[in-house]
Design a protein that fits this description.
Layout: H1 7-14, H2 16-40, H3 47-51, E1 52-56, E2 63-67, H4 78-83, H5 92-118
Antiparallel strand pairs: 1-2
Helix pairs in contact: 1-2, 2-5
Length: 120
């Protein structure tokens, strides 16, 4: 099951200021998650840690967090580090899980604040 935040509906209901407030929270929380992932990532060369970043989609409605370090043959190995029973050094999903509730509560708080301002 997937959940998503429809910023178009937020704009229609509460105005552009509400969407801007949510985007700011999304950016701040994405940065916190990235920093946590970097602190959890195993460091051999540092390439995996340095490849962790976030980016917006084209419409600024969704943030994607990326860990796409590649070896000298171009093979991206972040998934192997995350899921391999031999390596057993998950860094990506533990960081996401650690921030999930705070991310959600900050989005709700920002939306409620903007809804009160808009009188909705």
């Amino acid at each position: 099951m997937a959940r998503s935040l429809d910023l178009k509906a937020v704009i229609e209901t509460f105005g552009e200021n509400a969407a801007a407030a949510l985007r700011q929270v999304m950016e701040e929380e994405a940065e916190a998650i990235v920093l946590d992932m970097k602190s959890r990532a195993p460091v051999k060369s540092g390439a995996l840690r340095d490849s962790i970043r976030w980016k917006w989609n084209r419409n600024k409605t969704k943030i994607t967090i990326i860990a796409d370090a590649a070896n000298n043959k171009g093979y991206k190995y972040g998934r192997i580090v995350e899921f391999s029973p031999k390596i057993n050094k998950p860094f990506f999903y533990p960081a996401v899980d650690a921030h999930k509730e705070e991310y959600r509560s900050k989005l709700i708080e920002a939306l409620r604040r903007e809804a009160r301002k808009a009188g909705k």
